[in-house]
Design a protein that fits this description.
Number of strands: 29
Helix content: 25-40%
Distance between the termini: 26 Å
Number of helices: 19
CATH class of one domain: Alpha Beta
Bound molecules: beta-D-glucopyranose
Shape: globular
Length: about 750
């Protein structure tokens, strides 16, 4: 098996091989302008284009010292800064742009970047939640609106989408991605890039996208953020890279590398990833930005001795822009002059940065995104809230509904709304909320009150609190594990109610960057509250808000109804109420399985068979002796207020050739009494491969709306090329042999057929 390797400077190729999507950045007229500009630039000015600083807002690493502010401004005027992050607002961006354009010799505009992850002012559901919609159209629309708002506030470039696959819910950044599956991940990645970038980067409502974190950041050992990754080329190519490739093909203008090492090589210094694969094989023509300080972090990684060496390794490996390491601005020019870095590498990096600036139209008018009147008008657009509510309800997953407890009756006499997240107007905004105002979300309590009949009394009790003390991006949360004083009132409220809704889960700042957890259960006193409430009234609906799958334990067994609402964004409370009262029949499906126990992690439905797959009566097969291998709720799982049945799948051919394709179809019937939407899923198993293949792999999904009693044939076209993978010969190709196909409503409950590839 191959491992990721380092390719030295001599092997570096700057070959020009455009792929679909990348062409948008490259056109002969612009390349000529770039040639002319580069010809005028001093070495220091070139390095300046590769230098990025942050202003003080929302820094994710050590902030710049006060004295540095002046140095920064002076450097902008000297043409030594190419980009700023965390500068937002039409006025602030205009002022800072003026420093570069009016102050510097060549008047090259700055590019302003920001983490616009799930909305700018209007918060949409966290990305993991949106992935549960299995609705690329809705996800694209969400990114479109985020871009519209951000662009109106002077932002040119978002550090999104995060397309990292993750099999380990301990990793706090699982909230930022599309979950465990590369096929779904690729669809979502492309949808987000299309949404952010629109058709034309120069339009006033589009921003440049950035596929991150390249690569394998989601596979940190033990789920601990920033930790090392040790991964075969096989897993890298088959699992980690497909969403990145999809983002590149959708035209993502930029990539961000990752903090982690893979097999001993920090990604920032990894030429195999950045030069061989991204810029070589995929023909990517945009630029790669480092992650925050990741060039300098190659020193503590133990990969280089000092910042100068770090700068050298990074530029040689293909990291074009330095985010906050100051390695390039301090050392790159001297490295070139000393012959330690080829000047061509710097020119190539500068060209890539300038391409994106030209594509954004910044050379036509550097202030075009900084228009205060437009900013005010766009940020107040009421249609954004409507869209946020729509995607939030599409993201909600119904995990359990014993005895048809849900939907609740809007005209019930009394509804108790309980729990630490019930009246919380902040957590629904999630982590990485850009410029959403604190405490601005519609809470669950507000949503319920707005939804019920005028005769319904809604009784609220917090019960227990999640945390005490500071809660923000940078602070570690202190869980409240002692204050039980609110439990009796919650029990009283529950006892007298016709139905009880309990909102529990995580604080928004329990997931996100640096938010890894060894215990992913319901923390603090939440289970204690639930036990007391369920003892008083069995008609309890648990609404989970979380940035990751949780281990539900007692609650999973004893709560009759459970909804996963993620952090649903600005309109979360209305969206959850829409589902609670049946205004919207839930259709979300899990983009990542819910483990039974944290000890099962990492896990995926697309695991390998092993030589001892079992199940067998004895112990000598690949199993945990103390619990099942499978998750509590698998990938693709989610219930509806109606039920669906599936026929045996039919295949249009039992054998296909290398260029062939077949149709896989099944009849899906709504067997219940309500109209509903099902996400019909197609999986494949390649029975024998030159490298072993997963027991199931998602290859397609379709959302179908069915009236009660209605049946529909759902058909997928499966082409031989869809069966391709990175093989033992290092090629992306399909191998002949037998395949199984599965169709069903989740990755576990499927019906199967088979065919073979000649
Ligand atoms: C994160 C990136 C983010 C960057 C800038 C880093 O700490 O890993 O995802 O884009 O900060 O805020």
């Amino acid at each position: 098996m191959h491992v990721v390797r380092f390719v030295g400077a001599l092997a570096v190729s700057l070959a020009f091989i455009p792929v679909a999507g990348a062409d948008g950045l490259v056109n002969p007229a612009t390349e000529k302008k770039i040639d002319a500009l580069i010809a005028q630039m001093t070495l220091e000015e070139k390095v300046g284009q590769l230098n990025q600083y942050s202003s003080a807002f929302d820094v994710t690493g050590p902030p710049p010292s006060a004295g540095y502010q002046k140095v920064m401004y002076d450097q902008i005027r000297q043409g030594l800064v190419g980009s700023m992050i965390n500068v937002t607002g039409a006025e602030a961006t205009r002022q800072m742009q003026r420093l570069a354009v009016e102050g510097s010799r060549l008047r090259i505009p700055l590019i302003f970047g920001l983490d616009v992850i799930h909305g700018y002012r209007t918060a949409f559901p966290i990305p993991l939640g949106e992935a549960a919609s299995f609705d690329p159209g809705a996800i694209e629309q969400s990114a479109r609106i985020a871009a519209t708002e951000a662009a109106a506030a002077g932002v040119h470039w978002t550090f999104a989408p995060m397309v990292d696959i993750a099999w380990d819910a301990r990793w706090g950044r699982i909230m930022e991605g599309a979950g465990e599956d590369p096929f779904l991940g690729a669809q979502v990645a492309a949808a987000r890039v299309r949404g952010f970038q629109g058709r034309d980067l120069a339009a006033l409502d589009t921003i440049a996208a950035c596929a991150k974190h390249y690569a394998a950041y989601g596979f940190a050992q033990g789920g601990r953020d920033y930790n090392a990754v040790d991964m075969s080329e096989e897993t890298l190519r088959n699992v980690v890279l497909p969403p990145f490739k999809a983002a590149a093909e959708a035209g993502a203008a930029t990539f961000m590398n990752s903090f982690n090492e893979i097999a001993g090589i920090p990604s920032t210094g990894n030429a195999h990833l950045q030069r061989d694969i991204l810029k070589g094989e995929w023909g990517f023509q945009g630029f790669v930005v480092s992650d925050w300080g990741s060039i300098g972090e190659m020193v503590p990684h133990g990969f280089v001795e000092n910042l100068e060496q770090a700068a050298q390794r990074a530029i040689v490996a293909g990291s074009d822009m330095d985010m906050e390491s100051r390695a390039y601005v301090l050392h790159l020019a001297a490295l070139v002059k000393a012959g330690k870095v080829d000047a061509k590498l710097v020119d190539d990096a500068v060209r890539r940065v300038l391409r994106v600036k030209f594509a954004l139209g910044l050379f036509d008018d550097p202030y075009r995104y900084s228009d205060a009147a437009r900013e005010t008008q766009v940020l107040a657009d009421p249609s954004h809230a409507v869209a946020a509510r729509d995607v939030a309800r599409k993201s909600i997953v119904l995990l359990k509904n014993e005895g048809g407890l849900l939907p609740l009756d809007k005209s019930a006499k009394t509804i108790a709304v309980i729990g630490p997240l019930a009246a919380d107007k902040d957590s629904p905004l999630g982590n990485w909320r850009a410029h959403a105002e604190s405490n601005s979300a519609v809470s669950l309590l507000e949503g319920v009150k707005a939804a019920v009949s005028s005769g319904t009394s809604v009784v609220y009790a917090e019960g227990v609190r999640l945390s005490t003390g500071a809660r923000n991006f940078g602070a570690r949360l202190t869980l409240d594990t002692t204050d039980r004083s609110g439990i009796p009132a919650a029990v009283e409220a529950a006892r007298a109610a016709d139905a009880v809704v309990v909102a529990v889960g995580e604080d928004a700042f329990q997931s996100g960057e640096g938010r890894s957890q060894a215990d992913i259960g319901l923390k603090g006193l939440q289970e204690e509250l639930l036990r007391a409430v369920i003892a008083a009234n069995k008609r309890v609906v648990v609404v989970l808000m979380s940035g990751r799958p949780l281990v539900l334990g007692w609650t999973g067994e004893n709560a009759p109804a459970i909804l996963e609402a993620w952090f649903g964004g600005s309109q979360a409370g209305h969206a959850v109420a829409d589902v609670l009262f049946g205004e919207y029949n839930p259709s979300g499906k899990l983009p990542v399985g819910f483990p039974r126990h944290v000890g099962q992690l990492p896990m995926t439905y697309a695991h390998k068979s092993t030589g001892r797959p079992g199940p067998e009566p004895g112990v000598t097969w690949s199993s945990y002796n103390d619990m099942p291998n499978d998750p509590l709720y698998p990938f693709g799982y989610g219930l509806s207020y109606t039920t669906f049945s599936y026929s045996e799948p039919k295949v249009s051919a039992l054998e296909i050739g290398r260029d062939g394709s077949l149709r896989v179809s099944a009849t899906v019937t709504n067997t219940g009494k309500r109209a509903g939407t099902e996400v019909v899923q197609l999986y494949v198993r390649d029975l024998v491969g030159s490298l072993t293949r997963p027991v199931k792999e998602l290859k397609g999904f379709q959302k179908v709306a069915l009236a009660p009693g209605e049946s529909r044939e759902v058909a997928f076209t499966l082409a031989a090329k869809d069966l391709a993978f990175y093989t033992a010969s290092g090629r992306w190709e399909a191998e002949p042999g037998a395949f199984k196909v599965f169709v069903g409503g989740n990755s576990r409950d499927v019906r199967e057929a088979g065919f073979s590839l000649r």
